[in-house]
């Protein structure tokens, strides 16, 4: 079972538009609403693969009730923590060429009691979990060290932690030795305080995060592939993508694939890349099912191409 923790979940509304014109009245060609937030997306991908998952998230208002219902419809056990504020609603506008315009709401402010209630919900479900995936930004009211507290408590209970966050929350949590951290290339550059122009730069940055406490680093390099750096070595993998429809949730699908395949080693990296490649070819924030995956397309190498330039260098 994979337990996910999403401190700032959302309802994700996606509108596919024939074009985006400022100031105009636009009619959507298609629209959908999905349960959202990075940890929720991980649970969606895990459930789509047929594995058990429990999603811990603060939920409030009618939006929170709808989020809980949608999770149940997907076969996800929702461990909602009631809060006073309303669950946020995010909007994504998709143009025909795949260009995305996202509007993310701030979300409710959690009180100290509500923050502790979320930690208690994690503690209650942790004994049954093979992995705990803690994902996304922190809502208002939670200090940067909240994830560090969660990692420390979970490790005391014997649980393995995968952490997907950024900024001060990531830096603070490194001190507690999360089992896996999953930055994208921009977040990796921010964490080490310098630009990353090549895969070799990304490798050095990942090694630096390991030196600061992370046991392994799964770094998404966008269209250039993914990099796994752990005690057994460094591995690199790519997969061709014919058409990119949406990159919303692709990193979350990758993390789900990584954890579902054991969370370590080249096999897990290959699963992560297959899931990410499948996700970007789906509309909106849809998560890939097994039928969407093409494991044979993944090119896995123990020789990291150090001199390869990143398509979009992190600034």
UniProtKB/TrEMBL annotation:
Domain of life: Bacteria
GO biological process: carbohydrate catabolic process; small molecule metabolic process
Entries under SUPFAM superfamilies matching the protein: Ribokinase-like (SSF53613)
Gene Ontology annotations for the cellular component aspect, listed alphabetically: cytosol
Annotated ranges, domain Carbohydrate kinase PfkB: 15-289
Keywords: ATP-binding, Kinase, Nucleotide-binding, Transferase
A Pfam family it matches: PfkB
UniProt family annotation: Belongs to the carbohydrate kinase PfkB family.
Annotated protein name in UniProt: 1-phosphofructokinase
């Amino acid at each position: 079972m994979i337990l996910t923790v999403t401190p700032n979940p959302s309802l994700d509304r996606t509108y596919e538009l024939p074009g985006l014109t400022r100031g105009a009245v636009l009619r959507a060609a298609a629209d959908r609403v999905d349960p959202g937030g990075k940890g929720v997306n991980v649970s969606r991908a895990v459930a789509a693969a047929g594995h058990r998952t429990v999603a811990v998230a603060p939920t409030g208002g009618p939006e929170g009730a709808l989020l809980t219902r949608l999770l149940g419809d997907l076969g996800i056990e929702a461990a909602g923590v009631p809060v006073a504020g309303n669950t946020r609603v995010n909007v994504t506008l998709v143009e025909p060429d795949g260009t995305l315009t996202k509007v993310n709401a701030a979300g409710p402010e959690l009180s100290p009691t509500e923050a502790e209630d979320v930690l208690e919900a994690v503690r209650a479900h942790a004994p049954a979990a093979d992995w705990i995936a803690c994902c996304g930004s922190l809502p208002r009211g939670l200090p940067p060290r909240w994830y560090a507290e969660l990692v420390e408590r979970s490790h005391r209970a014997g649980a393995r932690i995968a952490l997907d966050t950024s900024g001060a929350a990531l830096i603070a949590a490194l001190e507690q030795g999360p089992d896996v951290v999953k930055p994208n290339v921009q977040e990796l550059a921010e964490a080490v305080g310098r630009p990353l122009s090549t895969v070799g730069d990304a490798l050095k940055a990942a090694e630096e995060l390991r030196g600061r406490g992370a046991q392994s680093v799964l770094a998404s390099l966008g269209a250039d592939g993914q990099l796994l750096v752990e005690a057994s070595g460094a591995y690199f993998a790519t997969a061709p993508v014919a058409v990119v429809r949406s990159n919303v949730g692709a990193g979350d699908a990758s993390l789900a694939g990584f954890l579902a395949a054991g969370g370590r080693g080249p096999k897990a990296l290959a699963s992560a890349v297959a899931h990410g490649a499948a996700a970007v070819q789906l509309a909106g924030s849809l998560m890939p099912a097994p039928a969407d995956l093409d494991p044979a397309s993944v090119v896995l190498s123990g020789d990291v191409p150090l001199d390869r330039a990143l398509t979009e260098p992190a600034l």
